[in-house]
Specification:
This protein is of the alpha/beta class and 193 residues long. 34% of the residues lie in helices and 13% in strands. It contains 5 helices and 5 strands; from the N terminus they run ααβαβαβαββ. A 3-stranded parallel beta sheet has the order 1-2-3, sandwiched between helices. Strands 4-5 form a two-stranded antiparallel sheet. Helix 3 links the parallel strand 1 and strand 2 (94-100). Helix 2 runs parallel beside helix 3 (81-89).
């Protein structure tokens, strides 16, 4: 089962401490639960994002990114490759896999790393592999835009569809309730964002 060493945080120093703690951590078994951990990671990310959106009354955009690092193939057999693939394909999260050594099948690694798969054949190659994966993760974060929309509607429930001018992308319908848009203090301006 997934055993988080550091809950979700934006504090880089806490993440670094948790990673350093792995050097001396001797808990758990001497097995690789690759498939089960991937399923748990997807579930954990989904639950955290749902919790965050609920706490913010759906007023927050969440982005899930999962980076799975392994040194070998699944030996625990708690979940199957099929279950792990289903979890990965069923999430909107960005999922990257990183492996050290040759004990894992590259095809399996690619199936689980739907947004990128990297292999380091030796420990000295890890810095470059992690750097490449980090650049990929950062690039995704840098291409997210937040759009503010001021509607002329002042009552009722309406649907909005956002579409690129060149036709390259279209959102799912977004429902909004305009019943409070006519309040005295509800003024549409860029200062709201």
């Amino acid at each position: 089962a997934l055993s988080p060493k550091q809950p979700f945080t934006e504090d880089k120093s806490l993440v670094q401490q948790a990673l350093k703690g792995l050097l001396t951590d001797n808990t758990g078994s001497n097995t690789t639960n690759l498939y089960g951990t991937m399923v748990d990671a997807v579930t954990s990310s989904k639950n955290f994002q749902t919790s965050r959106r609920t706490a913010m009354r759906d007023g927050v955009f969440t982005l899930g990114q999962i980076v799975m690092f392994t040194d070998g193939a699944d030996t625990a057999a708690l979940k199957t490759l099929s279950e792990a693939e289903k979890a990965v394909q069923g999430t909107n999260d960005d999922v990257i896999t990183i492996a050290l050594g040759g004990a894992i099948d590259k095809g399996t690694l690619k199936k689980l790393g739907k947004n990128g798969s990297y292999v380091a054949t030796s420990a000295k190659d890890l810095k470059q592999v992690f750097s490449t994966a980090a650049q990929r993760a950062t690039a995704l974060q840098n291409r997210i835009y937040v759009l503010g929309y001021c509607s002329p509607k002042l009552a009722g429930t309406h649907q909005l569809i956002i579409e690129m001018a060149n036709g390259s992308g279209k959102s799912n319908p977004i429902s909004f309730d305009a019943s409070k848009f006519n309040d005295a203090d509800a003024k549409c301006s860029t200062s709201l964002y």
